[in-house]
Design brief:
Elements lengths: L1 H7 L31 H15 L1 H13 L3 H5 L6 E2 L7 E3 L6 E4 L4 E4 L9 E3 L2 H13 L16 H14 L15 H14 L4 H8 L6 H6 L4 H16 L2 H5 L59 H5 L4 E2 L6 E2 L15
Antiparallel strand pairs: 1-2, 2-5, 3-4, 6-7
Helix pairs in contact: 2-3, 2-6, 3-5, 3-7
């Protein structure tokens, strides 16, 4: 400053010290790409394809992530004793502060604390999601809520490669259409945050639900989530689910994946049905065009169909002709549970 004043007073010809550039330095770094998020219609379509590719647990995992905003490790490490489904209208899931998240290393999976202390929280569930989780609990064989069709813990890279990427980006080879190209699992959390903003949910309620810290510590300390705010939040999430009813009731096109996938077909019994090897009790149907035979039709008993062991492990989306024709089902659909997906 003194040398600059001396130059202004013409006491010296120039400032021997390099003049410091005033103002902000221009940021030449490229701006970060906006993360892809999805609407409820996209989520339901992605979940339906994920159910076909990875079983009912995969589709329900995507729906739960989008309607709760939980992280990957919080959901894959969620156990049934931390899920309260006694009252569907007041159902909750609890993220344990010590073992509330599944961590993944190169060779092992282990339970540990969640990302931040604020991530240890209790999240209320919409009524429809509580009913879906209750249905899933009847067919679950593991202490963890979301597992592979074999009952093993989920690895993020495997799930992303086999289920999420084909469900979001599509696969022309197998006939799976693209729904939301570039959507990641963390993008489901961003989608939940976007929905809350659109529904005018207060910032403190958003932070409590997502497990975030507010930048303004004063607001975080003296702000609380009133019961009516929580009720409004759940009501808005329920409405977003109800708006997807037309997608959940419409039949899906059959491609190479899904109901007509080769790997999901039961093995055929290729037993020779000639005269020598005909099963006991089977009646040969007479041919009316042959001379000396009567035009009679005899119904032959159906042969026993062998089922490949792999088809018992793979799970599919069951379709019925009733109004609620799409169900999250396990190895077999239970007629008692058809109403939960409607």
């Amino acid at each position: 400053m003194l040398l600059d004043d001396a130059v202004d007073e013409e006491l010296i010809s120039r400032n021997p010290v390099r003049r410091r550039r005033r103002g902000r330095r221009r940021d030449r770094t490229p701006s970060a790409r906006e993360r892809v998020w999805a609407m409820p219609d996209h989520i339901v379509r992605i979940a339906a394809t994920a159910t076909t590719l990875g079983g009912p647990s995969a589709g329900l995992l995507i729906i739960t992530a989008a309607w709760t905003g939980c992280r990957w490790g919080e959901l894959t490490g969620l156990q049934w004793h931390n899920v309260d489904l006694t009252d569907p209208g007041n159902a909750t899931i609890t993220i344990d502060p010590d073992i509330g998240a599944l961590h993944e290393s190169k060779h092992t999976l282990y339970l540990g604390p969640p990302k931040t202390p604020a991530s240890a929280r209790t999240i209320r569930l919409p009524r429809f999601l509580a009913l879906l989780l209750r249905q899933h609990q009847h067919i679950a064989s593991s202490s963890f809520v979301f597992t592979s069709p074999r009952g093993c813990l989920l690895r993020r890279s495997t799930f992303d490669r086999r289920v999420l990427r084909p469900a979001c980006d599509g696969n022309p080879t197998t006939g799976v259409p693209a729904v939301r190209t570039g959507l990641t699992f963390h993008g489901l959390r961003h989608s939940h945050k976007t929905w809350l903003i659109a529904d005018h949910v207060p910032e403190i309620a958003q932070a409590r639900r997502l497990g975030h810290h507010l930048r303004n510590r004063l607001v975080e300390t003296y702000s609380h989530v009133a019961p009516e705010v929580e009720t409004h939040l759940l009501r808005c999430l329920e409405k977003r689910w109800q708006r997807t009813a037309h997608l959940r009731h419409s039949p899906r096109p059959r491609g190479r994946t899904g109901l007509t996938a080769p790997h999901s077909h039961p093995a055929r019994d290729n037993t020779n049905t000639s005269k020598r090897h005909r099963p006991q009790g089977q009646v040969r149907v007479s041919r009316p065009n042959q001379p000396g035979t009567e035009r009679t039709k005899i119904t032959a008993p159906r042969m026993r169909q062998q089922v490949h062991p792999r088809s018992q492990l793979s799970t599919m989306v069951r379709e019925t002709r009733s109004p609620a024709n799409t169900v999250f089902a396990g190895q077999r659909a239970n007629p008692k549970h058809l109403q939960l997906w409607s």
